[in-house]
Recover the amino acids of this structure.
């Protein structure tokens, strides 16, 4: 994937979940650049990344019901088709074809290298990602109640205590050269929350696997305690508090300040 | 016949209704007006539970208070399979006790936030929410690593235990207290699994899961 640092954030592709985080008949609750997402896998394996809002009455679709090829809203039972997001059935008007305008807002998504990737813009799907270097073992993704900027800065500046020798790849990708080389990718949830995704750049033997995953999880949690205690409260704030800060973020005017 | 001193909106009462439904145990509920009536502090109820707390269960003359204790009793007495409270492995027994205690911590935080938010109790809601998020982080990590090891439930084994029933309600009701579960995807998947246990019943604020894929 070529995530050029000058590309506005809205046109970039970000990981939002590991592929195993979306089992069938489940709805995953995600968020990217302030936009809440309902992510779900249909029974044929297709992943959908939808605005987390029913077009009928606005209820969150992340509390909806994954029927296998439709997502059903919990509130009035409207069903929306995998792929298009088009309403296919209205229980209160079962003989009436649903209006074409009754359609969930959908986002482009792909499943690649162990992660689900989403863009809020119109950029073409990448053919490869940061993790496309060979067999990779995904780590547990960890949410942080601080901005991606703070986590990227902490990883590069204080990496000797946390994850050895982290090098920036671009504003959202980092490479760690410890005993188990790994790549990290940051997902900006909103202007003051992010999720750190990562993968070890090798296939790990089954006997060591859980121990290594635990070691990375412990390091990432240690980093989280450090950056969150430095002035950010633990409470996850509700959506974006400041519209102007959010606008600057999605317009790409806020640079994730890292020395290249 | 078992008598449950019950309040419809209480997660701690619901977990007993839930386990009795799963085990196919009949009971009759005696409604106590916890909110707004504060009947759990009335003289007549304090004679049954001097702590002034719901739930209380009476079975064959035995009077029990404390939801977690009652789960242990119901599973020990009414689950002939022994799977809901397995007692033959000390390591499993210790872990069940650990998560039953964790359920009490969830009550002290996530339930307190809900009481403050939805029933106007004079409690520190922000402190309760921060405490619940701290616990949910621990729970989510435990469940994620469980999935990696092929374990669906809180404790080892291929069957849920009273620990899952004890922790489930106030996690599933957390949004009533302003505690989003967006940051806890492994918890969200575990909630779906609990909701698919045969005999599962709902309460207000807890929805059923989608039917599992064939």
């Amino acid at each position: 994937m070529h995530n050029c640092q000058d590309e506005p954030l809205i046109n970039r592709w970000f990981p939002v979940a590991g592929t195993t985080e979306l089992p069938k008949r489940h709805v995953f609750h995600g968020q990217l650049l302030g936009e809440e997402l309902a992510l779900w896998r249909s029974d044929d394996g297709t992943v959908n990344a939808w605005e987390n809002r029913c077009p009928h009455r606005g209820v969150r679709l992340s509390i909806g019901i994954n029927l296998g090829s439709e997502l059903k809203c919990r509130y009035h039972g409207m069903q929306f088709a995998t792929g298009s997001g088009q309403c296919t059935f209205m229980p209160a008007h079962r003989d009436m074809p649903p209006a074409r305008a009754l359609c969930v807002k959908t986002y482009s998504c792909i499943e690649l290298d162990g992660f689900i990737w989403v863009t809020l813009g119109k950029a073409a799907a990448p053919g490869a990602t940061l993790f496309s270097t060979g067999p990779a073992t995904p780590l547990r993704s960890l949410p942080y109640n601080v901005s991606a900027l703070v986590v990227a800065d902490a990883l590069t500046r204080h990496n000797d205590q946390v994850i050895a020798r982290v090098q920036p790849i671009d504003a959202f990708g980092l490479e760690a050269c410890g005993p188990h080389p790994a790549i990290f990718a940051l997902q900006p949830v909103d202007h003051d929350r992010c999720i750190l995704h990562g993968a070890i750049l090798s296939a790990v033997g089954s006997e060591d696997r859980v121990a290594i995953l635990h070691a990375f999880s412990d390091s990432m949690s240690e980093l989280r305690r450090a950056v969150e205690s430095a002035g950010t409260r633990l409470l996850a704030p509700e959506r974006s508090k400041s519209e102007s800060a959010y606008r600057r973020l999605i317009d790409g005017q806020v640079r994730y300040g890292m020395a290249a | 016949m078992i008598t449950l001193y019950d309040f419809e909106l209480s997660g701690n009462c619901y977990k007993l209704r839930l386990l009795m439904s799963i085990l196919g145990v009949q009971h009759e509920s005696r409604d106590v007006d916890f909110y707004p009536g504060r009947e759990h502090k009335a003289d007549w109820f304090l004679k049954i539970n001097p702590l002034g707390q719901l739930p209380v269960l009476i079975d064959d003359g035995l009077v029990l208070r404390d939801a977690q204790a009652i789960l242990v009793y119901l599973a020990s007495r009414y689950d002939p399979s022994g799977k809901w409270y397995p007692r033959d492995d000390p390591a499993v027994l210790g872990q069940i006790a650990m998560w039953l205690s964790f359920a009490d911590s969830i009550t002290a935080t996530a339930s307190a936030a809900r009481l403050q938010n939805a029933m106007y109790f004079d409690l520190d809601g922000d402190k309760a929410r921060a405490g619940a998020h701290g616990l949910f982080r621990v729970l989510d990590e435990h469940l994620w690593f469980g999935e990696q090891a092929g374990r669906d439930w809180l404790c080892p084994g291929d069957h849920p235990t009273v620990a899952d029933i004890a922790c489930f309600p106030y996690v599933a009701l957390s949004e009533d207290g302003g505690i989003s579960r967006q940051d806890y995807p492994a918890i969200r998947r575990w909630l779906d699994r609990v909701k698919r246990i045969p005999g599962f019943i709902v309460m207000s604020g807890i929805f059923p899961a989608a039917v599992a894929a064939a």
User: Anything to note?
Assistant: Chain B touches chain A at residues 126, 129-130, 133-134, 141, 144-145, 147-149, 178, 180-183, 185, 188-189, 192, 207, 209-213 (CB under 8 Å).
